[in-house]
Amino acid sequence: MPDLASLDLNADLGESYGWYKFGVDTELMGLISSANIACGFHAGDSRTMRITVELAAAQGVRIGAHMGLPDRLGFGRRVMEISGEDAYDYTLHQMGALNAFAARSGVPLHHIKPHGALYMMAARDPEVADGIARAAHDHTPGVAVYAMPRTALAKAAERYRLPLVGEFFADRPYVHGQVMMFGWTLEQIGSPPQVAQRVLAMLNSDCTGDIGTVCIHTDTPGAVAMMTAVRDILTAAGVHVRPPG
């Protein structure tokens, strides 16, 4: 059994836009301890941000800025050539937008987490990672950064003395220890019990100490059943679901 007292569960939420409803935000909000809320670049809009922040605040869920590339058509999952300064400006802009709604609801901005292609770019590109971490530090000194361990973004967070929360993806396959963020099949993700077993295997592995949060995406088919299965297996292992820190 894992030697771990608690673990954060997070989901990428607030990705609806106008009349288009996307994901199962309301159902997931009751199962998670922190929410990454889209800030209007890759998805989301003003009203969606307000409603999602209000929902999180009402349920005591920590709020994070889920910053993406300015690419609505590609849902922020297409790689773009950007500089470190671009990454800085995109991050500062989106943090500021979400923070306005967080302040209105009387809750702090707890963390940041890049979305999609920006997340993977920040994992491998030190310049992009530095722009993100520097903007986070300038906007909210001490804000937590959700990132995969030992990546460029993880190192940048530590450089700016931002709390690092190592992330594991329950609803993504891992190949030779590397997450397969795009191009997966539903068979590779597996059923809710298989997703839960993936988390348990991670907790029983040598990398347990690097992980502080586990993610399931709101647009993954069966996301609610998967998150429920993960919570159940954590409870059975004596691990409490709590926000980091």
TrEMBL record:
GO terms for biological process: carbohydrate metabolic process. PANTHER family: 5-OXOPROLINASE SUBUNIT A (PTHR30292:SF0), UNCHARACTERIZED PROTEIN YBGL-RELATED (PTHR30292). This is LamB/YcsF family protein. Pfam families: LamB_YcsF. Gene3D superfamilies: Glycoside hydrolase/deacetylase. It comes from Mycolicibacterium fluoranthenivorans.
